[in-house]
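Running low. Invent one:
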Amino acid sequence: MSIDVSDIPALARGCAVLGTGGGGDVRTGSLAAVRAIREYGPVPLVNLADLPDDALVVPLSGIGAPTVSHEMIHSEDEPRRVAEEVERIFGRPPSAVMSSEIGGSNGVIPVAWAAQLGLPLLDADGMGRAFPEVQMVSMYVAGLPADLVIMSDVQGNVVTIRPVDGLWSERLARAVCVAAGSSALMADYVLTAAGARGAVIEGTVTYALEVGRATEGVPDPLGALQGRLGAARLVTGKLTDVERRTTGGFVRGTATVEGTGDDRGRTLTLELQNENLVAIEDGRPLAMVPDLITVVDTETAAAIQTEGLRYGQRVTVLAWPCDPLWRTPKGLETAGPRAFGYELDYVPVEELTAHV
């Protein structure tokens, strides 16, 4: 299978939904992907089983604040510089590109990077969604050493970091990102195909395509999307307050949705850090990380990124279960509510919404 120009709209819609508000604006990634495919040709989509054990897989993602990344566009030189640094370090070129996170633009723009490098795209990622911090990837949860991060920015800088662990990879990479203007291209956990088996979440590019296609040409796109995701509808209403700030390489803030129609009289508050982290009603959580929480347009079911939330929008908030890896003790330690500073014990979304 290959990804062609005709696949990009569905991929973008699916990645926007899986981005849970983060991962960058898919419009930017879509434009880059379409342009690269037209210039370099369709991108082969491969499975891990298609690659030899020693094949180098390079997980790529943009790091930084989404509010910055859609204005400071990645250059075509950035993936080339990262690939050159990988070859310098390992003594052989990379064999495939992988999206570090399938959510948002970071799930779409790897198509462009793969096309520009003449490499296939791996049908996998390291999250099954989007998360804001470097160590919040399946490879870290699986226990792989976080001993190499390669970063490049639009100014032409290339930085190679040798962190002692995943938490230090976040601290150091974030500092470099902020110095670069809160947006950079990053490769972390460069790994062989053999090392990737069991440490990445497979099939997520295909899944994003399926999610994106679920709303194509149907009379009830919101119902179709909710059914495809197996999601709970937390509230349908109007955005009445959005507080958002960019600091430390993140977008942080809150958004408030007041219910309309059958939900009149209800108020839901979303806590944001690039992504939607916790949904709270009357002091009680209805969903929390690592489960997925996405805000969509009620009429079209198009996902709205955190930087696109505006007063007066008519929205529906959906939530659904994360990949089982994130519900393990290590997964919850890495990306559960307490990892973000919330004094909450994780409860699965299907339990929290059983009576909503």
